[in-house]
Amino acid sequence: MADWNALTITSSPQDVFIAVMGLTGVGKSTFVTLCTQKEIQIGHKLESCTSSVSIFSFRHKSKTVHLIDTPGFNDTTRSESEVLQEVAYWLSTAYGKADAKLEDRFRLNGIVYLHSIADVRWSGSTRRSLNMLRTICGPENYDAIVLTTTFWDQVDRETGKVREAQLIGDMNKWGQLVHTSPKSSVRRHDQGYKTAINIIDGIIDRGVKYELLIQKELAKPGATLHDTTAGREAQLLWEKDIERFQQELGYAKEAMKESQQQSDGTLVTEMARLKSSINQGRAALSELYLPKKELENRWVSRNTRDVELLQQQIVKCQKTIEDLFKRSASTLSPSSNGTPPPAYSRRTSDESTASSANSLLEQERRWKKDLMAQKMAKLAARSMHINVASALFGGVSAGVAILPLLPYLAACCVM
Ligand SMILES: Nc1nc2c(ncn2[C@@H]2O[C@H](COP(=O)(O)OP(=O)(O)OP(=O)(O)O)[C@@H](O)[C@H]2O)c(=O)[nH]1
Ligand SMILES: [Mg+2]
């Protein structure tokens, strides 16, 4: 069991916290990687990418900036309900109870919401994700949001500009965030450090800390997700989903009757899928009433499992590194028993074996560094949650926020 207290440091109240949100694959982890300037390649090699909240920290303009990488609401490995629970629980625990002092509370300096300009369609997932963002944030905090487009290299400039204008102009899209007061800002990010850090600078220079709507709503005693605007928005979505699935199930049953083939394979599979979706929807609705303690149990066990999984991968990676190291070292090392060096042709092929082993070795080292950074980021998320709770309830002096892990993240970089 990790000693969480050993993984903490005291940070200054001037620290900057920025959440990075958006659908799966829009480039959240890439953005975080660029800003932190660490050689981690999140999203390239891990199948499930970012499946839970992680914190990556870096120094910039004499400040410590903490980027909170979040899972997308259309995560392929987790349901919308699980992602909502994760994000809401983490934000609300860090925020603290209703009677906590403002200076003790965890408040964000901003939210970078990424959107791929290469997306041609305004899909259901895109709409749902934006609705979640709006309701988690609350209209009074829309200026906390920086709507940021990515994937500019995948569209020609003019097409991109037209799409961006459509997003801004349409009140069912970004219009509702940018034509109100306070309003969100719109930025472009081209996968370069400069555009990424400009966005961070804009947030730092604003110097405002926001209390999100969902944080205030969940701080009330006994509040559940159902008592939040985001929870009720999700409820409406899931009720509509269930209704649609039931209707489709009805059609499938009719079709089955008409086909007079009780074992029509396609229809049977389709009906099973619809029934399972209906059950999932019902489960999601009932989970809106889960007490915070249960959300906490789920969050902690998921975080622990993620960390353990990453640790296993690190051990495996280390073993591969050792094997590769032995292989590349033995290939070119002079023979210890005094036999003559190998013939030229043999030597060339050995050199090429050694060079490919070296390149694999390099890849594995990078992969290990990536895994370690991810593990530390998950520990940081957990450490933060535990220590904010203990700062609030365990008598740590007001104004001192206890924050995690910079020495450990730094240690990752020198691996
Ligand atoms: N062409 C192009 N590829 C990008 C851009 N931004 C990110 N990518 C790639 O898109 C893939 C997904 O990027 P991630 O940063 O993992 O996306 P994510 O939003 O963190 O995804 P999840 O963790 O699954 O939510 C990676 O292979 C990135 O290299 C971009 O602007 N242009
Ligand atoms: Mg990610």
From TrEMBL:
Start and end residues of each G domain: 18-79
Region (Disordered): 328-360
Gene3D superfamilies the record matches: P-loop containing nucleotide triphosphate hydrolases
Keyword line: Membrane, Transmembrane, Transmembrane helix
Stretch forming the signal peptide: none
Gene Ontology molecular functions: GTP binding
Bias type Polar residues, positions: 328-338, 351-360
Superkingdom of origin organism: Eukaryota
Membrane-crossing residue ranges in chain numbering: 386-410
InterPro entries documented for this protein: GTP-bd, P-loop_NTPase
Pfam families according to UniProt: MMR_HSR1
Protein name: G domain-containing protein
Source species: Cladophialophora psammophila CBS 110553
Top-level taxonomy: Eukaryota, Fungi, Dikarya, Ascomycota, Pezizomycotina
